[in-house]
UniProtKB/TrEMBL annotation:
It comes from the Bacteria. This is HTH lysR-type domain-containing protein. GO terms for molecular function: DNA-binding transcription factor activity; sequence-specific DNA binding. Belongs to the LysR transcriptional regulatory family. The keyword Nuclease does not apply. Pfam families: HTH_1, LysR_substrate. Residues 2-59 form the HTH lysR-type domain. GO terms for biological process: positive regulation of gene expression. Keywords: DNA-binding, Transcription, Transcription regulation. Gene3D superfamilies: Periplasmic binding protein-like II, Winged helix-like DNA-binding domain superfamily/Winged helix DNA-binding domain. SUPFAM superfamilies: Periplasmic binding protein-like II (SSF53850), Winged helix' DNA-binding domain (SSF46785).
Length: 299
């Protein structure tokens, strides 16, 4: 059986017509080309070329072989082009989604890095609430969802991304802004802006208050941490949010962001359909999400 190297050498001689020309075409030495040809002809038991004054002309017996060699070489060439295309995402589509707190800044930043690695990859992106993620993955509308809540579902695989803390938001001119850290007891005395605790993300934000046996009656109920920040900047109350919701260059100038005096934790995860193999694109997205989340961690 001919090897791909032998096929490559035969084709190069067919094109160049000389051993030296074939060697130049392949970037190797002429003696090396001659050795491969002698071995190939000995292996096949027939002469592929007639030699006249250093010129190589295909023999009549070998013309059918050359036709097949050209087809094989073209197939290998097409395969190499396909592989090169796949490396940059050619002909592929990836679907990713994120909850609002992650979709605000770190998700687009990670997508930018994925696009740089796979410039020909088509992307289908979504912003979802936590409860929408299960259908999105199990119905294979997309491959990965970046979440701020660990879903307990047998059909999902949860990959940890990040561990951070919650932050207190107060108007920049509010007396609490003078503190280095703000207690949930101080926040609870002010008009509170936030997400209802019947929402999974809202429960995460309310956990520091629940741990201190503080019941919160929200003055303004919203759907996202970014909206909370916008309303706090207008002086309408105080709030609690995660670090990712207030990341990026669009932080409102009228807000003071302070650590919460009591212990808090905020975790994020990448959720996948447990029955579907992960693509290289999703693995790269996970890597970049982790990097972007660590980059915005606040003291």
């Amino acid at each position: 059986m001919l090897t791909l190297r032998q096929i490559e050498v035969i084709r190069a001689i067919m094109i160049a017509g000389t051993v030296k020309g074939a060697a130049d075409l392949l970037g190797v030495s002429a003696p090396g080309i001659s050795r491969v040809m002698k071995h190939t002809e000995s292996q096949l038991g027939l002469s592929l070329f007639s030699r006249t004054h250093g010129r190589y002309t295909p023999t009549e017996e070998a013309r059918d072989i050359f036709s097949q060699i050209s087809e094989v070489y073209n197939s290998v060439d097409n395969l190499q082009e396909l592989i090169a295309s796949l490396k940059v995402g050619g002909g592929r589509t990836a679907g990713f989604a994120a909850v609002p707190s992650i979709a605000h800044h770190v998700f687009p930043a990670a997508v930018k890095s994925v696009r740089a690695d796979f410039p020909n990859l088509k992307l289908r992106l979504n912003t979802l609430k936590i409860e929408e993620a299960i259908d999105y993955l199990l119905l294979q509308r997309g491959e990965m969802v970046a979440l701020s809540y660990k879903l307990d579902h047998p059909g999902l695989l949860m990959v940890p991304l990040y561990r951070g803390t919650l932050k207190a938001l107060v108007p920049a001119d509010h007396p609490l802004a003078a503190k280095d850290a703000i207690s949930v007891h101080d926040l609870a005395r002010e008009p509170m802006i936030g997400i209802e605790s019947d929402d999974p993300y809202g429960r995460i934000l309310m956990e520091p208050f629940l741990a201190e046996n503080i019941d919160i009656d929200l003055s303004i109920s919203v759907r996202t941490g970014h909206t909370t920040a916008s309303l706090v900047s207008q002086g309408l109350g105080v709030g609690v949010t995660d670090e990712l919701s207030i990341a990026g260059p669009t932080i409102h100038p009228g807000i003071a962001v302070r650590p919460i005096a009591e212990p808090t934790v905020f975790r994020t995860y990448a959720a996948f359909n447990a029955q579907v193999p992960r693509s290289a694109f999703a693995d790269r997205m996970v890597t970049y999400l982790k990097q972007e989340m660590e980059a915005v961690k606040l003291p």
